[in-house]
Specification:
alpha/beta; six-stranded mixed beta sheet; 23% strand
């Protein structure tokens, strides 16, 4: 058993305790609340339990204790740092329709970015293919600490990547084949979905096992609503095309990047689809991101759109996620909504809120202890726990030194 005591506990469930505690048992949150009057421990000298030596204690006095941060869209471990072409598995740029590809087969958790994420307090991430293809393959939602990808999986498949606009156009027009226009991108996706629907109907009507098609099996979780389309969209017209197609086929969808979403905020809100906004810290190096700005996520959020903030690592570095949220606040976003946009909202958007995104009894003990406001650039993650185990401890943090839980 492990207790985190004395810090300001922000649950992202509505409760905030200036001096609170969190009790962890078997990798899950077992109990939490204010320390006053009912705290089970108040310091090492007062520890007692039926266990030999009593429970372990992390003293977070003077710090902020909150759920681990979540990156809702990135290519960490699939576009590896320091590896060049050998470590770049983000896009299969030979066929515009590759929905059967699975990111889980390419993610390398020993990419340096995973360590950077943990050191920044980012405990889970949605990782998947890039946007060169109209249909690029499935994303996987994982924890950020460990060496075996299969042991890090929270949800797989977690979403199906589709892309609109400049990237598919540039990639395939350069090869002298379709799509070279936005019309072709939309038409190819419609045809793919149409065939997937036909395949689903045949499956439901008693298709023989030997007739099953690997290419279309991957669409079944999308068509059933189990996972959403994950649509790469920057320009307003591409956002609206994605919404149009999702409605035609009655699909759930996330609007990823949504760089011109603020220009059509009411339409995005009317669609009911959430937006994963960013990477606003990157340069406007493409035509379709000329209107990219930190104000976008706040404007969408104010209109009632459920929002998450993304670094799109490695487009901007994953450890900049809390900084991006702080810059969104500077551009007008409500501070609490910015915090939710890197914790509970991405958990809900990625459909893993039963396990992560907030501090609540029964959820995974993915917790970060900050030495100050997480949205301030000078703030450091002093201790990061994933499923109740210390994955990182800053050398200047003495709150968990000597604990058998501290392997950092």
């Amino acid at each position: 058993m492990l207790y985190i005591i004395g810090g300001k506990v922000i649950t992202m469930e509505g409760s905030v305790w200036e001096k609170g505690y969190v009790c962890i048992r078997d990798g899950k949150i077992a109990e939490l609340g204010p320390m006053e009057g009912k705290a089970p421990v108040s310091g090492r000298s007062e520890v007692s339990s039926g266990e030999k030596g009593g429970p372990e204690v992390i003293d977070a006095s003077g710090c902020i204790v909150m759920p681990g941060l979540i990156e809702a869209h990135c290519h960490m471990g699939i576009t590896e740092e320091k590896k060049g072409m050998e470590g770049d598995d983000c896009n299969e740029t030979v066929d515009p329709l590759t929905p059967y590809l699975r990111a889980v087969d390419a993610v390398n958790p020993m990419d340096a970015a995973f360590d950077d994420a943990v050191r920044a307090g980012i405990t889970s991430a949605m990782i998947g293919p890039g946007s060169s293809n109209v249909a690029g393959g499935s994303f996987v939602f994982v924890k950020t600490h460990g060496r075996c990808i299969d042991r890090l999986i929270v949800k797989n498949p977690a979403a199906m990547k589709v892309a609109f606009g400049e990237n598919p156009k540039v990639n395939y027009s350069g090869q002298g084949k379709s799509p070279s226009t936005r019309m072709a991108i939309a038409a190819m996706l419609r045809e793919e979905l149409f065939k997937a629907v036909q395949y689903k109907e045949k499956r439901e009507n008693g298709m023989k096992p030997q007739e099953r098609d690997f290419r279309y099996e991957c669409w079944l979780p999308v068509l059933s609503g189990e996972i959403p389309l994950k649509a790469h969209v920057h320009r307003a017209d591409d956002i609206l095309t994605a919404i149009r197609i999702a409605r035609e086929f009655h699909l759930d969808m996330t609007l990823d990047h949504c760089s011109e979403g603020h220009l059509i905020a009411e339409e995005v809100a009317r669609s009911g689809f959430p937006a994963i906004v960013g990477p606003d810290l990157a340069s406007r190096n493409k035509i379709e991101v000329q209107n990219m700005a930190f104000k976008t996520v706040g404007i969408l959020n104010q209109k009632g759109v459920k929002t998450a903030i993304t670094t799109d690592h490695p487009v901007s570095l994953i450890q900049s996620l809390p900084v991006c949220a702080g810059l969104a606040v500077k551009a007008g976003m409500d501070r609490e909504e910015a915090l939710r946009s890197i914790t509970i909202y991405p958990a809900q958007i990625c459909r893993v809120e039963d396990r992560v995104g907030s501090l609540k009894v029964g959820k995974d003990a993915d917790i970060v202890i900050f030495d100050g406001d997480p949205l301030e650039i000078a703030t450091k993650a002093m201790c990061t726990l994933i499923q109740g185990e210390v994955a990182y401890c800053d050398e200047g943090f003495r709150g968990c030194k000597g604990s058998t839980f501290c392997n950092a």
